[in-house]
Amino acid sequence: EVQLVESGGGWVQPGGSLRLSCAASGFTFGDYNMSWVRQPPGRGPEWVSAINSGGGTTHYVDFVKGRFTISRDNAKDTVYLQMNSLKPEDTAVYYCNADLRRNRGGPWYNYWGQGTQVTVSS
Length: 122
Known about the structure:
This protein has about 120 residues and is mainly β. It is built from no helices and 11 strands.
């Protein structure tokens, strides 16, 4: 079956680092754009970062630019999010997302993981 399994979350002090991983299975990972989306407590989801299927193009929301790095290893069917200089406002459940839609009006494939908790506090 299709699965996206996030890992690597935990507790860290402000200024610390974590590396999140998302292991994919059950679909052709190398065909999909991948994103990280987070949901802070008491707030709606926030898009964080995206990487295209080949890994050559990345995008970041302003509040993580210069601190977070998205990458992927298609041979391992895994996408990563390296998070440095973490701030308390980065506290959230982090989800990975796989997305593919080749043509307007055509099939749209969109998968989500279960999320991993990141807590940044003193």
